[in-house]
Amino acid sequence: MSEQIVKPLGLAHVRVTVTDIHRSKAFYEQLFGTAPAMDFSEHIDEPGISEDRERLYGGVIFPVGEQLFGLRPVAPSGQRFDPDTVGLDHVSFVVGSVDELHAAAERLDAAGIEHGEVTDLGESGMVILSVQDPDDINLELAAQN
Fold this sequence. Notes:
Layout: E1 13-17, H1 21-32, E2 38-39, E3 60-64, E4 67-72, E5 91-94, H2 98-111, E6 119-120, E7 126-132, E8 138-144
Keywords: Metal-binding
Protein name: VOC family protein
Organism: Curtobacterium caseinilyticum
């Protein structure tokens, strides 16, 4: 084995590319129950915003525990996420308990948002609930069993 190049302590942030910032922002606000910590979505129609890193490319950043989850609105309209291409497969968010997963499933039902079943992954010690975001990015809510 080669010498370790870096010793990561965790993830600083995850950012996904979306087609429609207003639709995605509304979805994640509802999912997380909070507004973004940083929001440049109202500037999305300004010239040059999609290249402006300082203004998050016209996107938003949500606080998720001690990490950050961002949306970058630069994908062409109509493009859909494909987990079978190189890159992101899914994003998994930890919740406090299996009971929270069941409560989340009930709230997703009440909101009319399609989702998978609460599923015990057996020996992994994890229970998950999957939901697709508006661009079909698979989100997984996960709890220790």
